[in-house]
Amino acid sequence: MQDFNTGYWELHSDPYRENWSERFYEILGYSKDTIQSNFDYFLEHLIHKEDVDVFRDNFLNYRINTVNFKQHIKILNAQGNYQLFRCVTNDALPVNIKAETSFVFFFEIKLESDKTIKKDNFYYKETAQMTSTGSWYVDFHKKESSWDFETYRILEYPEDYSPSLKDSANYYSEEHRQLAADCFFNCAMMGTPFNTEIKMVTANKREFWARAIGKPMYNKSKEIIGIRGVFQDIDDIKRKEISLQKSVDIIAGQNSRLFNFAHIVSHNLRSHTSNLSLLVQLIEDIDDPKEKEGLIKEVKTISTNLNTTIEHLNEIVTIQTNNKQERVPVKFKDALKLVINGISHMISNSKTQIRSDFNEVEKIDYIPAYLESILLNLITNAIKYKHPDRDPIISIKTYMNDGNKFLKVSDNGVGIDLKLFKEKVFGMYKTFHYNKDAVGIGLFLTKNQVESMDGTIRVESEVDKGTIFTVEF
To answer: If exposure means fewest CB atoms within 10 Å of the residue's CB, which of 119, 287, 307, 312 is most exposed?
Structure first.
């Protein structure tokens, strides 16, 4: 590889072996005979003490974990003065350096007394504030944690607060504490850097999304002695991303329903009309009155089926039209009471027990007819597909999770084989039991109603044990 107008180290696969370029010696005023060209000698005799820890961590992480870095460091020259360099790994360069081995480049920066350092510190502080990026480190030997000024501001802790590993769980939302623990454990024990999105909690209990980046710190013996890292407040960006993803999912769902709708229109209606046309032609060609009478009965059957299909399609269109209706407060207890009164005969004949618990979420702003329809379809389904060896027991419960409202309807029926029918559960005219009353429209309509109100519905089931439908509003 050609020598650049700067100094560099060429790193080899042998642990901690480097070749220092001639230009690197020249810039500092050394010869190959006056200093040792190895990492340990560089840390002990050449680099400024203030830069040792960070450079050692960066270099070893680049060596061990291929984590690229950029850093300003001061190096002692042959005249006994420190020169300022910008240290960059080859993969972090603005140009692509193709080589079989790795490189670390040292670009000399003319040092104008302390002004350059003060200027760098000023820009560091400005950058941290403008990007909401805080830095921190955990020292395992001293058993202490440290934050910079921006970390205190972001996490809303007073300046006299002393961060501690004992309190670390309090810095993260309950749902992401395990993720935080796993990242720290892998970094501390195996030297694995982390770069992840995680939900944090401030001193004032405000939750926000953050980008957390961490890497191990090493001592002279190349042992891990701590973790150094940064985190950035990305709450606005993340919430917009989640909102956008929800919109994409809604659009995808709407496109899927539109495709399904178009398929039913083109296939089912055409099938009915083709059969009608064929029967009319046969009737015209037959003279026997008895045969004609039999064919006319067939016409009535097809006409009834055609009318049913049109009614189903009309219901789907109505759902999409009515979802703009004004939402009003609806009590789950009242909606369930209306449904039970409407199918009391069905419940009585099947010896069904319905247990409800609406203590956690008593009401919701919704279209009343939709909530009643959702409950009706889920309850009647549970009764239709009851287990032959036991009476139906249906549990209906509302609850809160992460600020969202949920409705869970579970039964002890025959269950659904989700390995075979998972993609068909909410499909139109999709059935997965040999029940003669199965039409395959109820769950399809329920899913449409839920999603038209920006909600989701999912199913869990086990054959011969029962089924659970969960609606997130």
So the answer is: 287
